Description:
Blueprint: E1 9-13, H1 20-27, H2 31-37, E2 50-55, H3 67-70, H4 78-82, H5 85-95, H6 99-110, H7 130-136, H8 143-161, H9 164-173, H10 175-181, H11 188-203
Antiparallel strand pairs: 1-2
Helix pairs in contact: 5-8, 6-11, 8-9, 9-10, 9-11
Amino acid sequence: xxxxxxxxxxxxxxNPSDTLWGISKKFGVTIGELMKLNNLTxxxxxxxxxxxxxxxxxxxVFLNKTMNExxxxxxxxxxxxxxxxxxxxxxxxxHQVPFQILxxxxxxxxxxxxxxxxxxxxxxxxxxxxxxxNFLGVNPCIPEESIDxxxxxxxxxxxxxxxxxxxxxxxxxxxxxxxxxxxxxxIEETQNYVKSVLSYCSAINWDDY
Length: 209
């Protein structure tokens, strides 16, 4: 593991009109992450202050494969999404769910934006509903918790349906509808969702599915 001093960071010089909230939106990170990374005790920032935005993830996350070999450019989200690959891989391995499915769900849900709130009230990187997040005991606004909660939820859905397309559909529209229709429901949004996730899965160069 690298010493803290040897880590590389994306840097940003604060402009006169900048706010911490605005910077967090610009780079797809949370205010809490920025405060922790820069040892800030309040959200007040100053002109010309150099902020660390995020750690630059090395290409050894996937051992003998580079990030771009595993996640090709055709997968939406770009670097904003790829920055969560390590956390997703860790949670996928911890909870024994396929990395490429968990990553593809994240991309389909938020394109890697941890600040996203949908018009239906889904929150964060994995777009968990408040009720689901409370059930899982996670804060959906904290990306690592959102990922870990989503991995556990996905594992429980697969245990219930024993079929990944059904589990993916249940993540989108809820398990009750999947049970009602005994498969992917005839709901256009859910059918497109499952197709998108499986399409991204097939493009990701990772062999655990």
